[in-house]
Amino acid sequence: MLHLINFQKDWLSLYFVFIIILIFIPVAIYTKGYIMEYKKHYSANYMLGLIGLFVASMIGVVVSNNVISFLVFWELMSITSFFLVIYEYMHKENLKAGIFYFVMTHISGLFLMIMFAFLYKYTGSFDFSEILKFSADFSSKQKYIIFILALVGFGAKMGIVPLHAWLPKAHPTAPSNVSALMSGVMLKVALYGFIRVIFIFLGSTPLICGVIVLIIGTVTAIFSILNALLQNNIKKLLAYSSAENIGLIFAALGISMILINYNLLMLASLALTAALLHCLNHAIFKSLLFLNAGSVLYATGTKNMNELGGLHKSMEVTAICTFIGTCAISAVPPFNGFASEILILRSFIEAITMVSNIWIIILIFSCGIIVALTSGAAFYATAKSFGITFLGKPRTKKAEHVKAIPISMNIGQGILAMLAIVTGVFSPFIISKISYYTNNLLDISGKNPSFENETEIIIFTMILIIITFILYMFNRVNSINKKQEINDTWACGYSSDKPYIQYTGSGFVQPAAKIFGTIANYNKKVNFKKNISISQTTSDIVEDYLYKSSLKVVNYLTTKILKINYGKIQLHILYIFISLITALVLVLKFV
Amino acid sequence: MIEALLTIILISSIFMSGVRRIKLITAGFIFQSAAIGLIVLKLGYETGKVDYYILGILTIVTKVIIIPLIINKSVKKLKINREMELIVNGFVSYIITGIGIMIAFGLLNKSQDNFLKTGIALFIIGVLLMVARKKAITQMIGFLIFENGIVLFETSLSKMSLVIEAGIVFEGLMLALIMGIMIFHINRTFDSINTDFFENLKE
Amino acid sequence: MKYNLFYFFQSILIIVLSPLFIGILKKMKATLRGYMGSSIVQPYYDLSKLLKKGKVISNRSSFITTIGPIVILAAAITTTFFIPVFYTSMGKTIGNLFILMFAFGIVKIFTVLIGLDSSSTFGGMGASRESFISMMAEPLIFFLIIFLYIETKDFNVFHISFINSKIVHYDTAHLIAMVTFSVGILAENARIPFDNPETHLELTMMHEAMILDLSGSDLAYVELSSYIKLIVYLIVLINCFVPIGIATTFTALSLFIGFIAFIFKLLFCLLGIAIIETTLAKSRLFRGAELFPAMISLGIVAITLIYIL
Amino acid sequence: MYIIVLGILFLFMIVTPLILKNLKITGFVTIFGAVLVLGIVFKIITLVSGGNPLSYFNEFFYIDSLSVVQLLITASINIIVSIYSYKYIGNEIKEKIISNRRGKFYYFLFNFFVLFMMFIALTNNIVAMWIGLEGTTLTTAFLIGFNINKNSLESAWKYIIICSIGIGIGLIGILIFVNAYSNQDGSDVLKWSHLVKNSNPQSTYAIKIAFTLIFVGIGTKAGLAPMHTWLPDAHSEAPSPVSAMMSGVLLNLALYVILRFYIITKHIPGLQNTKWLFIIFGCVSLIISSFSILRQLNYKRMLAFSSVENMGIIALGLGVGSRIAVFGALLHSLVHAFGKSMLFLTAGNILSAYKTKRIDKINSLIKTMPINAVFLILGMLVITGAPPFPAFFSEYYIIVGTVETGNYIITALYSFCLLLVFAGFLRVFIKIVFNTEPGVKYAKMEVDKENTLPLALCFVSIIIMSLFMNGYLSNMINNAVSIICD
pTM value? Predict the structure, then answer.
């Protein structure tokens, strides 16, 4: 096995290694403090070791240049992440979620194994460089096969609909630093694999592949963000939102694939750059938000935002960091989500004008509209998550009595928050860096006009900062000698000191629940017995229909097949002879 | 002479496939094994090979004397004499055996080797006894009939060295012994040798 | 440099004049309803009065309330530097349509969070509705950008208005897109039929509900920013869809014509809003939301029209 | 020479329990003997590693790379299991479950059992292989029924009846097979090394029938479904060391015997398609076992089903027939031997601590028996094909083989079954190891440390295997693959 370790050193690998390490450092710092909470019941060394192994195996995946080592590290990544997910094993639900997660990743692993087996069949080699040499000679049938297998294989790990169901189960279960790594980095590793196989090994794919990727990406985005909107568990919301961002990246990749098919390489490079940039940005802000959720959990012991509120006073740093993360994820300039969001939208728009087929145009246009709706919904969801958790008044005792957070956790969050701003403001430089490589990848020589005029965001930020500063000074001057009164909030004359008059998370998204509720299987029940109370439930419809029905089929088959093993010994003897006769007949007939 | 012995084998085996008394089955088994032993000895006489003599003597010693002794002993100890419940009743068993032997002979009509055909008939009856009877002891006898078929097969087909054949026969004997001991244990723990009680192992 | 200074001057003009335009709008509405109404410079009085006052802050409020109004105003002011008013050229300018539209995101996120910050019921309600409406309106903005890019192959507002100012004959798609964007403007600026900017009735407020707990200078900043926001949106509408008459050369005459045309068009738009606001009533939240799918399908029609005709 | 030494060694080991009264010394002798046997096997491996087969006693014993793989498995599992048995039997006697006499009986049968298995791997005579297999049936029948109670007797009876029939059918097949070669010289006709070079039998028709009979007959012993029905009962009821030995080694050897005949058959023109027997029975085994694993209440039974599944995988790999798949299959038989032994031995430890085989009675093993829990999890990962353990490679090579030869349906079926098995194992073992009932205090058990050396040995061998996969091991397996494929 040792001989397999031989590194790949092209830019794509290095880029993802960069992302992994970039996220790992703050998360590691954060872990130092965060682990205190677990020390009582669980072993800290166990977690630290697993995290180390997890990160190492992720790096292993992205640097391996050979199928076997790729798969080995891939599976190692799954195994270690599984054990991290069930780290708090004393809760039964965690075990269930973990098993579900591991089975899903195993599906992904098996599909990848088969896919690489096909690549081996077509190219005769397990070596990436050998496969690459062959990449021009794939027939379109071969490309279809590899594409479908890669889509399912990597998709199951990325959490594209309908293979996303593990995300909202595994992420809330895992300790928050682990979910930060899983959502921020592990999903990206899957994306790395997809990009390597589709864009580097296959080169150009048939048009239909791009269309499939685009549609799946869009459906994933809208489906998961609408589900995210209706969640009250912070981490579940974030998990769905991760699926949404993956959907966006996927849609951009789909656009890129379609454009490569039309030989519009300049634009394809733009879309690919958008996807890669969003990988980085999402890694930063999503891990930031997960770390924040972890801090909230650490301090209050609950993930349910309807029990929280008013945390901005007791957890100031966390509140500010979450605010930055929220801005980033809802694409507010100059935070980093914005930079990639406009690149993705731009690639949609420019693709519409360049592609000649009217059906493709309509497709891209409708997908673009949905993506825009998605970004609106993302704003809604994260505003809810931040606003309900941190602002207002504490809703329960849990939110009032808050445990102090270790400094290392704050440092970890702070670093990521800084990164979210820096990568946002200086996104033009990052874009030009990435685009250099994507241009190389797609064999574009010379300057790509798609990437001009990208520096406006810096000017914008400068203007914004200057004006804010001026206004701030003006305000300071203006408020001198003015009376400033601090009072309770006015509540129409009633005593306002009632936290339950505030909007809850469920109430906040009520308008959306009313319109899009069916997508998340939203149910509201009002009970009039004694006290009037409202119970609201959501569930994943894909899980309800697809997963449960396939489980039913498996259960049915199990019941039938199990019967073979029971029964009388006489019957078992009969089996031997039946199989003997069948085998004889078959052999005499066909051999 | 050989034809007569083969007739004995066939008649005894068809007889065994339907009777209920274990003693009768044992008796049939003794006749059958004796006939097989004699056939092997006869072959030895014809060809002049020592192998056949030894195989024949071994067969007669084990299957005519030792194994029936074991069976009778355990039957006496266990106080069972009758296969009370049949999965397939006697009448149908006869018919199945008849049809089975017919089909086997029909399939092998090109072969001139009567040993082979008889061997296959013995397989069928052995399997029938194992599949269609509930008592462990009948199953054991069924297996022994099956083994007899193998001996017939051997004599018709092979030309192995003595050691090997002795090995095969010896292991057959050991198997019968082990089965006997096991039946004894089963009776002691289950208070019956009916395989209906074998339903503990599930899931 | 000269051009840049002029752009700067245009933007300052907008910042300074936007309360005036709002005053004109209020006057128009009053006239249409048949009463006198306040003076058109009333918004200036209001703002200065608010700036002079002290403020009352909720004891639950956080850094959002402290910095929010300032940032909101700053963002609104910043957007004015990204649009042409009555002069445009193909030169190198900052006017990215994306940045412009997403900059309003800053305004939006802060207002929504301010709504949640004060822990009052109204704030939450307003925030919830505002988020909902703006989520539904997002596709419209996106559609606007797509459409303009298809027409002009550019994302820069200056360039777009320069290119479109040469069009004399507008096709159907163009007009449909314009109508769609107008609805988007009404939604984003909390106007009727989505929201009534005048009432402070608990159940109908959206925008007002969110800033209910602001007072003094904070309220002034937010008010001013909402004035600027409306005007900026209208200018985008004007200069992207009907930029006819806008100055494209740097001569006194063309600048004068451009200025006159701009004022005229803006007043026309304000009149339109006034008419809408006096004739229509605020619709229910979900009835209003139904407008968006309608507009999106209109947008799809427009896009297909471009490619099929 | 080595054969004689081996023979004497085994004679000594078999006689020891009969003569000596002290069980501890017997146990030591067995362990010591096992170590010596492994030493000799290593010596043989180095002799054969060049690719040249050895033969002794007028070619009655014949050792090539294929048999070396089996020898290695047998000898190494033998050591592990004898170390385990030492404490296991000691405990059983201490707790008065069995008498001293039965303990001696155990060692006697056990050594006989190992002898027969070594014999199968060493011999060149095709009927002698059969005799060896039959011998294992004889010896293990008592070992399975070792704890004389209802369940063990039932399973032993099932085992002996079903396997004897299977083996009997196999013998008929072998007889026909030999007869089909009646054109050959009488003294050579039983020698595998002779038959394999000789690809023109008198009647290919007879060979077809014979091979089918051999396959189904001996396949019964190898635990291929649907002839596997004895297996879950026998393996769950036998004492754990015996289960480990049977599951890890015996099933392999039965498959090995089939393989020997397959190699002869394959060389006969027109009979290459007999590989479909392997593929079809492999798939049936996979399907039946993987679905059965999903709903087991008894963990040892579940491990037994997993053995069926792994046999299916190996058969599938052999049937697919491309070099890489056969390599995978042979590697898998090695890994499976170690991994499954480890699991069975761990299960034995758990059984002796908890006195129950029911999955629902055991919770939070990580608290009560941490060492065993870790081995259980590791064993699960090994057996379900998780990297970096070599089962991953073997299973993957078989996938590659099926894809390479264009059997896509089989690829799909195979991967689906792997997934089911994985889910089943995960569900059960995670439940056993981690599940914590609220309000229950879990105290650490003293017996945890008792019998962990063999487990560690298993694990270390697996690690060594994965580390040196490209050195000696792959060289050896590649030689074996050449025997099968060329």
Answer: 0.92
